[in-house]
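QUALITY CONTROL LOG
STEP: pairwise intake check
CHECKER ROLE: data steward
CRITERIA: each record must contain a sequence immediately followed by its structure tokens, with no blank fields

ENTRY 1 OF 2
RESULT FIELD BELOW
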Amino acid sequence: MTVSGVESATASKYYVGEQMCPHRLVLEHVTSRWGVLVLIQLQERPFRFSELRRAIGRVSEKMLTQTLQILERDGLVHRDAKPVIPPRVDYSLTDLGREAAEQVRALALWTEQRMGEVQKAREVYDARKGGSEQG
């Protein structure tokens, strides 16, 4: 794979034919719609499942469960199930998860800071596309 015409060993390790290589799979987990939100939210403090679901908003129970299981399997989230009645399960970030969350938060902040420029670029693009289709 080339990036800006230059062979990139870093980028090429994410593409192994049609197979999903391990690096790419973890990247997808961390940058997925819900993965990003879970990591950013858990950066604040540990959460119980229902608290986390409310804090994130608009995520189904099934999708949040799957996301937490995937991030736990990747070593980013710690699940602490306490043997009490009713059962209490807390989710927190591991050291690895805190590292990933910092990176994701940086990207989220960049997006927030640059949204005006992105919006302008979209408007220019849309105007150009709209004009070319009519002309």
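ENTRY 2 OF 2
RESULT FIELD BELOW
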Amino acid sequence: MSIQRMDNVAIVVDDLDAAVVFFTDLGMELEGRAQIEGLYADRTVGLDGVRSDIAMMRTPDGHSKLELTKYHAPAVSDAEPRNPPPNTLGLHRVMFAVDDIDDTIARLRPHGAELLGEVARYEDIFRLCYLRGPAGIIVALAEEIG
């Protein structure tokens, strides 16, 4: 027995609408929105009284998805430190292949995206960068050049 596919990665955000706009401007498509609550939600995530809104975003090829989640109850807990560095244990970052890294950065900056370093070149293969995105997550971009 083996897995069928990786279905999605969930990201908890404090402003769902802003996160949807950020990932839409990145090039993802909004697949749908839903309110999540009830006993099944409590049992699934191991919390009592879950009430949340989600937005499911998908890549243009339809193969990858992000579930953006805004919890209304129970109250969210802040990660420490608030904006952990890239070498923090746990979920590290989410990376996207893009056609034009400079254009992508320019589209995301109005939404608060900040480069962690700079756009770097890996041999004659990729241009790469890390950005800080919604809820402090690290969004990596890769532009194939070789």
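INTAKE CHECK: passed for both entries
DESCRIPTIVE NOTE, ENTRY 2: The chain has three helices and nine strands.
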